[in-house]
Amino acid sequence: MATALRGSLVLWASRMSRRPPPPTSIADYVRRRQLLSVTDVVAPSWCEYEFQYGVLSQSHLPLAQRPSQIVTPEGNTIIPSYVALQNREERLKAGTGVHDAIERLVHPDQVQIRTATMEDRWALRFIECAAGVAAARHGRAREIPIFGFLHGYPVNGIIDELRREGDVLMLSETKTRATDTLPTTADQRQARIQCMLYRRLYDDLHSAIPLSLAEFARAIGLKSERTLSDKFIADIIEHPEALPWAETPAQPSLADIAALAQESLRQHALPLSPVMELVYVQRRRRGEDEPGEVGRVHFEANESLDAHLDHVFTLLDGSRMPRGVPEALSSRCNRCAWRDGCEWREKQAQIIADDAVLWKEYSSISDEALAKISW
């Protein structure tokens, strides 16, 4: 069984009181961040308006710490459904529980590494990435950090699972379901794009000219030459078995760890299978030990990823306003906490109302009058 590294943060609680005000737009949110998440890049594919409202309401915070209402870039004030927000948090919590249960099966031994600085945290991520790829070469690994650049923006995420199959690695993502049925192909799109993004970032890490981890660290404002904290160094010295290399400098910097991780990736990274996998499981019910598998979907990367990236980055950089879901996918609105005040839904309702007025006016015109109209 593989050993999994886990970080324990020891410094950052003091920053809570200095939390900045909520962003005023998606572009403002992106400008403030030195680093985007894969979720930032993927989530708009479900609904761009829901993504915008989540950004404005700081949906990454616990419910009690979020604003009770938001003001949109169009000047509208929207109050979300608290019940819908609670339900969403419960679904996310249940999904996290499923992932944790699977990881405990794959990585029963957990090593805690204390981190005291941002450089420590990223050194740990570089180690986890290299260790995960090395473990996958020998069988299976879960929760592998991945990072790189997309459209010039630094991006990071976590690959759910890498599993060796012959001479390649299968990239697999587990998704939880409330029902025992697979989602439609349209509703799988977000998960498929997520997998294709992970694939792109992984390929960039072990290409002929690989992503430089040191360059990535500089891009997100880290001080790579600074010696890592005493707590971090003590913990990695105590657990050399968790590192995918034999020797570590006595007083390593982030640059040292980046170089070691880069070399480990060069040695251990196998190519990915052209086929990727989505595993759908039903959320555990009370009293059940393991989630039940609903089914697996296999697919290959295609040109839809580049089309999505070109489209979504015009939203993220503020070049355009968000667009809502088409009518055929409006069932997605049913569980949305922003449904009642959604600007997109109001715009579509107004279009329908205007069409009804036009049709009423048109239908009241006599046949003789219609015949005289020059089309």
Automatic annotation (TrEMBL):
Biological process per Gene Ontology, one example term: interstrand cross-link repair
GO cellular component: mitochondrion; nucleus
InterPro entries, alphabetized: EXOV
A GO term for molecular function: single-stranded DNA 5'-3' DNA exonuclease activity
Family matches, as Pfam families: Exo5 (PF09810)
Source species, domain of life: Eukaryota
PANTHER family in UniProt: EXONUCLEASE V
Family that this chain belongs to: Belongs to the EXO5 family.
Name of the protein: Exonuclease V, mitochondrial
